[in-house]
């Protein structure tokens, strides 16, 4: 992808604050952090979103997220940790190269990742089960 900023960052064409790198991934600090240490896991091969992401890369990304969360928890002494991954504009995706957000959480921080819980009706439950299960 010629014009993808995360392709360029992941492959080292644009410099970044890199926390980790291997043949397939780069982990960088987010330039607009939600909290101290907010980082992004970027696969080096372009995939726009989770639908395009190869299964093998998806598996490795989750394992890497676990390792980074452990390391960051120890290093930053955070009190909690969110892993967030947005797909599509309505879901908050602004860069269309798959990435996982690693967001350390601290007591009293102002990070907002909550929603107002609805109620699952019997009709909706049955409709969804019929469509997906
Ligand atoms: P999303 O909204 O899930 O697509 O996340 C995109 C994230 O990328 C945001 O948190 C941005 O702050 C971050 N971001 C955008 N451009 C850069 C960049 N050049 N370097 C580091 N992080 C970036
Ligand atoms: Zn890309």
Quick description:
With 133 residues, this protein is an alpha+beta fold.
Report on this structure:
This protein is an alpha+beta fold and 133 residues long. Helix content is 29%, strand content 19%. The chain contains three helices and five strands, in the order H-E-E-E-H-E-E-H. It has helices at 5-10, 55-76, 122-132; strands at 18-21, 25-29, 39-43, 80-84, 100-105. The protein is globular and about 50 Å long. The structure holds adenosine monophosphate (AMP) and zinc ion. Adenosine monophosphate (AMP) is lined by residues 5, 16, 28, 30-32, 40, 86, 92-95.
Write down the overall geometry: globular
Q: Which regions have little confidence, pLDDT < 50, spanning 5+ residues?
A: none
Strand order of the largest sheet: 1-2-3-5-4
How would you classify the helix and strand content by structural class?
A: alpha+beta
| Mean pLDDT level | 97
**Portion of residues within helices:** 25-40%
Number of helices: 3
**How many strands?**
5
The major β-sheet equals: 5 strands, antiparallel
Q: Approximately how much beta-strand content do the residues carry?
A: 15-25%
Element-level helix/strand string: HEEEHEEH
Topology, element by element:
Blueprint (H helix, E strand, L loop, with lengths): L4 H6 L7 E4 L3 E5 L9 E5 L11 H22 L3 E5 L15 E6 L16 H11 L1
Antiparallel strand pairs: 1-2, 2-3, 3-5, 4-5
Bound molecules: adenosine monophosphate and zinc ion (ZN).
What are its keywords?
single chain; binds adenosine monophosphate; 5-stranded antiparallel sheet; alpha+beta; binds zinc ion
């Amino acid at each position: 992808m010629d014009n993808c900023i995360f392709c360029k960052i992941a492959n080292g064409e644009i410099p970044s604050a890199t926390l980790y790198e291997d043949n397939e991934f780069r982990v960088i600090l987010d330039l607009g952090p939600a909290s101290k240490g907010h980082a992004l896991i970027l696969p080096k091969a372009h995939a726009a979103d989770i639908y395009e992401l190869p299964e093998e890369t998806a598996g490795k990304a989750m394992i890497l997220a676990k390792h980074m969360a452990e390391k960051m928890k120890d290093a930053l002494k955070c009190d909690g940790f969110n892993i967030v991954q947005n797909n599509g504009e309505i879901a908050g995706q602004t860069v269309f190269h798959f990435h996982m957000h690693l967001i350390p959480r601290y007591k009293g921080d102002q990070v907002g990742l909550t929603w107002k819980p609805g109620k699952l009706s019997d009709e909706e439950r049955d409709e969804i089960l019929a469509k997906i299960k």
